[in-house]
Amino acid sequence: MDLVSIFSTIVLVTTIATLILALAAYFAYKLREWRKPKASADDKNRTGDAFEPIFLKRHMLGDPPPTTDEHAVHS
Amino acid sequence: MIKNYRILLASLFAASFAIYLLTRLLQSWNSHTADILKGNAFITYFTYYLTAFLAVLVIRYFILMIFSYLEHLDNIRAHELEQGEQRTAESENRLPFITIVVPAYNEGLIIKAAIGSLLELDYPHYEVLVVDDGSTDDTYERAQEMINTSDKCIVTVITKKNGGKANALNTGMAHAKGDFILNMDGDSKLSPNTLRDCIRHFDDPKIGAVAGNVKVINRDNMITQVQALEYVEGLALARKAQSYIRAVNIIPGPLGMFRKNALWQIGGYADDTFAEDCDLTLMLLFEGWHIVYEPRAIAWVESPSRMIDLLKQRYRWTRGILQAIKKHASSLWRPHKAGVNGFILWYMLFEGVLWPLSNVAGNVFFAWLGIQYGASALIAFWWLQLSILDLIAAAYCVIIEKEDTILIAYALVFRVFYLLVVDVAKIFASVEELAGTKMSWGKLEREGKL
Fold first, then answer.
1. pLDDT tens sequence across B38-89
2. Which of A10, A17, B245, B411 has minimal CB crowding within 10 Å?
């Protein structure tokens, strides 16, 4: 077996092993995500000002920023 | 110095060996393909496709390296001019006030170190605004301990109910006193010169934002070392090249400075994608703002040190980028109107979808030829060409960025192992995004390396 054949075989085996590992790693990740505790119904139903994303509407230049009374600020 | 010589000699030896192998493999390629290609249309056309893909990659690297080098020269000139200027009380007073916004969710382990590093920045007028996004740990309490610890700048801590990173950044933006806002991650550490190096770009009124240079701090295993190379070769190289045409396509979450007016104009961060930084950057570009990259403004970040965390991160990035592209999809088909931005969208699609798909397909195809026809020389030839390309790009980037030369050696691991694993995850992420599969944010577990 010459050098090129040995080298080629190593690359071939490594690539196949890596492809199998890549698939296994991905499915392991998905399995872990699937088994993670899900958010409770209470979390999903929470509403109110603090849960509304703020400042997501377009603002014209020069507009004052929205009020932020709902946040506790310490400095 | 001696270490560098050894690495240089090893690189020369590796390059000579690679060229020898490439020549021998080319002979094998010619003899094998002549036999295999005979009468098999699928193999013929797929080989043509992969050859075209390889040509596109070579051209891509070539263009990126030329553009990034031109940008590098511009940066050196600008820096030399800046160095020549004397700092006076008057010139320091003229510098604008900057607000640093630090969104933090369960960063109790590292938040004090992160704020502490911000108090050491070399800049006369700035404030630090920490937004605790409803953490369930002691982030808020620990951040509060940093208030009044410095005479140099004011530290303000805001706490709010959990609403996601985009919401936290928007809250910070609404409270910011400065006309310029630096957004970062709670787990990043900035280089002391960051504010000074970023703010100089805003002398040009067309500049809406400056993207910083993100580097890996926890280089303690093979996965994080390869990511350190990837950040230098894959991300910094592309950003530097894009900066030459002032169209950086992703302002990284760990470090981006914005003109507040520009952020107001686009309405801040949207929370309908999982890559809010990419989405915001595209919105700025489509509003006509120019975006540049500042290589000397560095954010050190902890990268995933376990394979499963890495896959989680890349899965989110891929789906987030696709979601951001989808919001501007109409521009894909109107290149005359979208101009450079249309090209940027196609480039992102190529990098996000076509590149991983072609890379994995190429490996599967050649592995199949190796098993079916005993032509294992073909996959070695394919791998070697791409690895040489990676090595050249890695050497160029490491030299330009003055990075650790040992990273060049990781280019081989990058190609044979890392990229294939990440690309498989990217393909699945793209398929699931198309299918509309639900997903969650998935926060990276911190090790407290800052």
1. 667 888 888 889 889 988 998 999 999 999 999 999 999 888 888 777 778 7
2. A17
Rounded to a whole number of angstroms, the CA Rg of chain B reads 23
- What is the distance in angstroms between the Cα of A41 and the nearest Cα belonging to chain B? 15
Tell the residue number behind the tokens 């060996």, with chain if given: B17
CA distance B201 to B184: 18
> Angle at the Cα of B343 (from B318 to B72), degrees rounded to 5?
85
The pTM score is: 0.83
**Residue B360: how many CB atoms within 10 A of its CB?**
18
Judge: B155–A75 Cβ closer than 8 Å, yes or no.
Answer: yes
Q: Is A20 near chain B, with CB under 8 Å?
A: no
* Contact (CB<8Å) A25/B308: yes
**Total Cβ atoms within 10 A of residue A68:** 14
Whether B287 and B208 have beta carbons less than 8 Å apart is answered as yes
The two tokens of residue B150 are 């410095």
- Give the whole-angstrom CA distance, residue B385 versus residue B394: 14
Name which of A32, A57, A74 to mutate to probe chain B: the one with the most chain B Cβ atoms within 10 A of its Cβ.
A74
